[in-house]
Amino acid sequence: MTHNNQSYMDAALEEFRQKLTSEWKRTNYKDQIFYLPKAIKAWMAAGDRQNAALLLEAVYKDRGFRRDITVAQLFKEQTRCIIVFAILVSLNYGHLISVFHQHNITDYRVDHDIDIQNSNLSRALRNERVDPIKVLTEFEDRKWSFTPVNLTYLMHPSLSGSKWILPFKEFILIGEGGTAKVYQVLVEGCLLPRDFRELVREASNKVADLAGFYEFAIKEYDHNHAEHFKREREAFMAIRGQEGMVQCLGDFEHHQQAAQGPQTTYNILLEFGQFHLGEFFAEPQTYPPVLQQEILLFWKKFFKVADAISSIHELTHTTEGGSTRRYNGWHADIKPENIMRVYGEFKLSDFGFAKFANYSNRPLSYIDGGTATYGAPEMDTERRMRGTKTALTQAIDVWSFACVLSVTATWAILGVQGVLQYEQVRESAIRDLPGDRRPSSSAAFHNGTKVLPEVLEWHQLLRTCRRESDPITDKILDLIDDRMLLADPDERIPIKELCSKRDALVEEAERALKRPEVQVSQPILEKLLQFDREPPTTSSKEDEGSTMYPARNARGKESQGKSRLPKENSVPQAKPGKVVYRAEALSTALEGVKDIQRQTRATDPGTTAETNNEFTSFLTWSPVDVTPSGRGQQATDPMQTKLPGEPHPAEGNPRREPGLTAQEFPNPPTNEARDGRTRVVTASPETFTSPRLSSIVSGSAVGYPDPIAGEISASDSQRVGPYTVQRTLMHLQTGRSLSTAPEVVLSPSPTRAPLVMSSPTSSAPRFNTEGTRPCPLYSPYGHYQTKAESFAMFKERKELEGRVRKSWSFRKQERDKDLKKIIEDRDIVFVVDRSSTMGQCWPWVTFWVETLAMKLARLDDDGLDLVFTGSGNLDHMGCKHAKEFKTRMDKAQRELDPMPTDMAGCLSRIFSTYRQNRKYARRALTLIVVTDGSWSVPANRQRGNKVEDNIVDFVNELQRTSQDVHDKVKYRRWFSIQFVSFATDPVAHANLKHLDSVMWKERGIPDVIDTKPWDHSIVNNLILGSLHEFADDSDEEPSTAVTGSTSAWRHP
């Protein structure tokens, strides 16, 4: 043996020992030492198993290198001994690995107890001149450090003995009830399988010193409550994958021997909730919503709990074999403590009292347990009638949810002090009842038989106190009083109907968003957003990722349904904090301002960004601001504003609409146009609406349709010419453009050229050209099941979910038979425009991309690719899990790019990757580009030319590279691009259609590009349009919903 070989062996042994004492070493919450088995295996296998080979030689060098085991045997699948070998090396018994291997002590059996009295094993160890009992005892003690409990998705191990090591960094008690304890735990990411990390990526800690750790909750039952554990585990398995519910990630049993006898704990691993609802209300630096959009967003997100309850009441479960079964369910314990705040979403939790039964038209069940405070009167009656049990309907959940809604509305209007006072009001009312009529709970919402009159009176108080900007809470209170808190269970609204009512209320409130109440300038909005994004003086648990703060240990036992809110004198003084959903609401509003500014700069070259930012205001309509339809005064000072109620002089702008207020600000003061004006106004939908249908107006300016309202008088659209500029209607809370229409400006500069919007097409786009249809205001996720006929994509999604097995992965889904005939050996890349101009339609973009990904399941063997415009840091290649697309899209929504889209740069990045990866380049490629067409325009170039150049160069390069590929490009569309247009700007959509219909002819390339609007009536053609001539030629005329009244489709 050479000196070099000896050095390599010694170095390998030293490196192993060093890593074992540092890099691979961990301690858990009990200060138990354990090592990272995955890291050990990776090191052993490195360099084509070279490390393992050197280590094996090193431990045998003092024995003449006589060994009866090879490296291949160490790694053999059935008898793998890598961890066993590591344990023995750590004990300086590495040379005994052959003995352990021969006696079947392998990695798969290492956690089994070794029979120290085994005569054959003992004899073999004595032959190696070691003490068998000493070696085996040390091995038994050390092996637990090398085999911590393996945490996997849906784990279900049974752990026997007290030596098992749970690899939790922290294990802190955060709640204790009558049947179980709840702990918050931290797990290092390297201990979780990759697919598990992907499923729970939101659980990754955001705090710098705990980066790489994941947060979970563990619900622990003792042996006296094993039945509760089994019931809750079964319930979690039944609702697995259902949205709006805290998910079970696995469970384990731990059997130990204690001084007082055997002890067993039953544990469920859960998603971690930063707060339950009561804690969320009491959080001193989280404030109720104030602005309209904040209020609406809060209620929309909170009402997802109703969807979760509805899923329980009518549960559809698909078995592994593909059969579908229907069940009725009861949660039976809905209360604030069982509604968790999980990474910004409200989710239903704690299914310990849940019941499920075979589906019935009138489901009834006997319910054990529940919480008296939020329980229905019939549940309270059952408890007071000892020895008598009555089967209960699902209406008990409706009552309980109504009580939670009542408390939530109180917080939304009066804050945490109102919640405390509301509880005192109910307690006082119940104390005044005769003793034999009092309900079980001192803070119940009923008097034993029906709702407390004081609850209804409290609701009236809330109506009186609600903000003028609140468009929905009073209607929710009406729903609670009229349909939910009813004594007769049969009269209560079914939960499914409640969800439909919710949708109607939300749509009505969204229409109300067109009438903001306050006048707020862009600088104020920006300051509010900046303040909200700054960290609070004392960070809240949610903002800091809910890491292990000492305060979380202070929670006591839950009382019988009473809130764990602090008492009045313990609420701290107000400190800077966060208003719920303010950042999201203000970001949306500000994007609306920026959209207008971009449009203004695009149509008026003389307008600069500096001037547009000088003063931009959202001036809004309110009932108290309505003025008679007189003439408005034309402002000469850009900072002048009219106070509500001031009379308007007769002179001035003769074109002001009734009920409108406006603020003018000038264009740059050039010699050519000192008096040019751009106006930003808002209007009541009752007093200002857009044309039903229009074409390009005569003259030089273009008017845009109002996507929300109905009609405008003819006089408002007929005078258009060189004396005209654009008027853009906006509203404060959404920042959404209501409409633009021509506006006459007095005294224009005679030298200013008319405003002309150009298009690369030979003729200007039609006013309502196909594809300019805006996305509806509501979210598609709440409507596609019940309104499947409204959009082809809704119907497609509903059918897909009916066929798809309940699974996290694409891989178990059936291939689409129609697409399978055409798409073969082809890479599909979704390219999503993440410019801020896409922000308002992002829920629809997400829904669209997710649905198309479901259709393409298993057609791309190496997984679908998702690419975003911009830096590429959000890209995700080889997506194989159904949830990955939506998760990535949601993350991208939080990181929308304020700069115009560099589509040319994005395509260059994709083409470069295709060229560099030869294996990738041998496959056909289709890009599905989802965009609104609002791309950056290079200096002195027409919009889109750089994109055209990149596409043409790439196709020509493919043609030059191989004649075979050239034929494929020409006849089989080896490479193709499908543009899916979310453009509401007719010019942007015309540019996309130009790429489809004109560019390829002008530039002499095959027809490999297609453009279709997002609401195209044939969903498959949104995939095949660039691949198949029939699908390419199937472009349809606008539907009647588009060419007719816009209200026909906006609120189906």
Largest sheet: 6 strands, mixed
Number of domains: 5
User: Outline, from the CA principal axes?
Assistant: globular
Mean pLDDT over the full residue set: 74
Range of strand content: 5-15%
The strands making up the biggest β-sheet line up spatially as 3-7-8-6-5-4
CATH topology of the largest domain: Rossmann fold
Could you state the CATH homologous superfamily of the largest domain?
von Willebrand factor, type A domain
CATH class of the largest domain: Alpha Beta
The number of helical runs is 35
- Unreliable stretches (pLDDT < 50, length at least 5) are 542-574, 606-771, 805-812, 939-944, 1036-1052
- Percent of residues in helices comes to 25-40%
The radius of gyration over CA amounts to 34 Å
Q: End-to-end distance, in Å?
A: 83 Å
CATH architecture of the largest domain: 3-Layer(aba) Sandwich
Number of DSSP strand runs: 28
Q: What do these coordinates show?
A:
Residues 630-639, 758-771, 1040-1052 have a biased composition (Polar residues). Residues 526-578, 623-677, 740-771, 1032-1052 are annotated as: Disordered. GO terms for molecular function: ATP binding; protein serine/threonine kinase activity. This is Protein kinase domain-containing protein. InterPro entries: Kinase-like_dom_sf, Prot_kinase_dom, vWFA_dom_sf. The protein is an alpha/beta fold. It folds into five domains: 3-146, no CATH class; 169-272, Phosphorylase Kinase, domain 1 (2-Layer Sandwich); 276-512, Orthogonal Bundle (Transferase(Phosphotransferase), domain 1); 586-642 and 654-744, no CATH class; 793-936 and 943-1050, Rossmann fold (3-Layer(aba) Sandwich), CATH 3.40.50.410. The strands form eight sheets. Strands 3-7-8-6-5-4 form a six-stranded mixed beta sheet, covered by helices on one side. Strands 25-24-23-26-27-28 form a six-stranded mixed beta sheet. A four-stranded mixed beta sheet has the order 19-20-21-22. Strand 1 and strand 2 (33-35) form a beta hairpin. Helix 4 packs across helix 7 (132-146), helix 14 crosses helix 16 and helix 24 packs antiparallel against helix 25. The radius of gyration is 34 Å and the shape is globular.
